[in-house]
Design goal:
It is a single chain. The chain starts with 11 loop residues before the first strand and ends with a helix. The strands form 2 sheets. It has a 7-stranded parallel beta sheet. The protein has a two-stranded antiparallel sheet with strand order 2-3. The longest helix is centred in the last third of the chain and has 14 residues, at 193-206. 27% of the residues lie in helices and 15% in strands. By secondary structure, the protein is of the alpha/beta class. It is globular.
């Protein structure tokens, strides 16, 4: 955890909870399970237990209050904010910090979209400085997108990473941002770039910001970040909804240029 990170789409992490359990194929080669032994070997007191043991660190709830300059904070990057072993009361304490430090933007990403939706209903909607996201690794898990669409959050995003199969048709109404990336690590599953292109084209046609994180490979940087010869680094303009929208004519022009 810290105010610096190598993750391309954020600039800080806040791990008031650590540990997670695998619930779908996208978890098979999770980076957390590789990082945990390293952190343990380095003597980090937060990572002495097994990575599957979910632990809440109450002394870390106030970390964002110490950061005066605004940050984009990936919350629970070494866990899942909506894990079954984390109670609503423990989540409430994190939400309290988020409300007390409104200068920051908090990115909360989950595969447990059903708990996310239930919790949001319980608290009457998420604070506006939360970007709420779900992970979708292939078409079998598009139901998470629908749960996200139903949640009461100002900014919503999809993390389609690792992309391990075709997604198919996406209804992106109400979705502000889509991140796509191939898997990395010793047992990575290769990315078919046509899967990424299909998602990119749907984002362009529906006016949704598209961020291509990586092709993937044995290491995160192995395949680079180019998709059809360019980097895609779009972010949602949360102050002016739809400001990054690309009209159908521009979409067709871009598609023609990519084919040539």
């Amino acid at each position: 955890m810290g105010d610096k990170t190598s993750i391309e789409w954020t600039n800080a992490t806040w791990n008031w909870a650590t540990g997670c359990t695998k619930i779908s194929p996208g978890c098979d080669n999770c980076y957390m399970y590789r990082l945990y032994p390293r952190l343990k070997a380095m003597g980090n007191a937060r990572y002495k237990a097994l990575p599957s043991l979910v632990t809440v660190h109450e002394d870390l709830y106030d970390v964002p209050l110490r950061w005066r300059e605004p940050r984009m904070i990936f919350t629970c990057s070494m866990s899942d904010f909506f894990h079954e072993k984390i109670s609503d009361e423990q989540r409430d304490l994190a939400i309290s910090t988020i409300r007390r430090a409104p200068q920051h933007t908090y990115q909360i990403l989950t595969k447990r979209s059903y708990i996310m939706k239930q919790y949001g209903d319980r608290i009457g909607g998420f604070p506006r400085n939360i970007w709420l996201g779900v992970s979708v690794e292939d078409a079998r898990f598009n139901f998470r997108t629908e749960h996200l669409r139903q949640a009461d959050a100002a900014t919503k995003f999809l993390s389609i990473e690792p992309l391990i199969g075709a997604i198919g048709r996406l209804d992106l109404e109400g979705i502000d941002w889509v991140i796509v990336g191939g898997e990395s690590g010793p047992n990575y599953r290769p990315l078919n770039l046509d899967w990424a292109r299909e998602i990119r084209d749907q984002c362009l046609s529906q006016g949704v910001a598209f961020f291509f994180k990586q092709v993937g490979g044995a290491r995160p940087k192995s395949g680079g970040r180019l998709l059809d010869g360019q980097e895609w680094n779009q972010y949602p303009d949360v102050e002016n909804k739809g400001a990054i929208a690309i009209c159908e004519l521009e979409h067709e022009r871009m598609r023609r240029s990519l084919r040539n």
